[in-house]
Amino acid sequence: MAVDTPLLTTVRYVKRDEKRDTSVKPYILHYAAPKDFPQNNFAIEPVSGVEMRNLRTAGLAYLDHGLAIANIDDTGLEPAKFDDDDWIEREYLPKLHDAVCQTFGAKEMTVFDWMLRKRAPSFPKRAEGEEHVDDNQPSLSAHIDYTEAELQSRLDAYFGDRKEEILKRKYQVINIWKPLSGPCRDFPLAFIDPKSVDAQRDLFKVDEVFPTVANEVFQVYRNPNHRWYYVPDQLASELVIFNAYDSDRGQELAVPHCSFDLAEAGSGIPRQSIEVRAFVFY
Questions:
Q1: Which residue would you say has higher pLDDT here, 210 or 73?
Q2: Taking 90 as the threshold, does the pLDDT of residue 136 lie above it?
Q3: Residue 1: what pLDDT?
Q4: Contact (CB, 8 A) for 202 and 227
Q5: Are 186 and 262 in contact (CB under 8 A)?
């Protein structure tokens, strides 16, 4: 059987800093910092020569690796329609609900967040005033969107008095990602097989600070054992679903992820994509 040749690429990781003041929690500000105040207190570094494998042919089962490719009927899902928030809520999310529940055999899915990303042509530098410069841009450092403590606070926020009832059910927290058009050859999303992650050594808790809230996430240190995957030429009808939390297994299968530059192998218009975050109940 033919074996796919891994693509060699560059991925951004947290830089290890043995001299870091551990009494100060790592943070990054998602707004303009006051004068002379650091925007963040840790460093990200590019690591070259990372092998990127084909998720399509990897044979990774979701129950074992937290990663799945699923299909969605993209009839009527033209990219321009995603500029209408009401249309996303009315048309796209119900269609996504059906596709995910059918894929996993789940009883229901509750969406708690979604985000459009439209890459500015000059990204990652971003020239002032250019098209899409103020839109959400691809995330370039390897990360997991939540720590377990952060997820527990989300349960309080989203379900309130129903939290105890929710906790009696089997559930997962997932991300669902797709390009608005395909084949996607511009800053695709990539994923680390969580079975290749040493949670004690590789994960680094960081506060992402916004004007009105702070979210605790994991950034990721480089580990040569990491096995990276992406979906070459991902279509608009293809979803990548990846795990962030499982009520039975905790974050054992939480999938670190980030975008990466295909460089000479890339082509096409600047990427536009939608990412949905949801609770799935069984």
A1: 73
A2: no
A3: 36
A4: no
A5: yes
Q: What is the pTM of this model?
A: 0.92
pLDDT value, residue 30: 85
* 7-14+21-281 belongs to CATH 2.60.120: yes
AA letter at 142: A
Three-class DSSP labels, the chain: CCCCCCEEEEEEEECCCCCCCCCCCCEEECCCCCCCCCCECCCEEEEEEEEEEECCCCCCCHHHHCEEEEECCCCCCCHHHHHCHHHHHHHHHHHHHHHHHHHHCCCEEEEEEEEEEECCCCCCCCCCCCCCCCCCCCCCECEECCCHHHHHHHHHHHHHHHHHHHHCCCEEEEEEEEECCCCECCCCEEEECHHHCCHHHHEEEEEEECCCCEEEEEEEECCCCCCEEECCCECCCEEEEEEEEECCCECCCCCCEEECCCHHHCCCCCCEEEEEEEEEEC
Q: Which residue has the tokens 């951004």?
A: 12
Q: Which of the four pLDDT bands, split at 50, 70 and 90, describes residue 257?
A: very high
Question: Torsion angle, CA of 30/31/36/40, rounded to 10 degrees?
Answer: 0
- Each residue of 157-194: b (16+ CB within 10 Å) or e? eebeeeeeebeeeebbbbbbbbbbbbbbbbbbbbbbbb
Beta bridge partners of 110: 279
Residue range 232-253, pLDDT digits in tens: 999 999 999 999 999 999 999 9
Where do the domains of the chain lie?
7-14+21-281
Judging by DSSP bridges, how do beta strands 238-246 and 189-192 pair with one another?
Answer: unpaired
Task: Please provide the average confidence, as pLDDT, over all residues in the chain.
Answer: 92
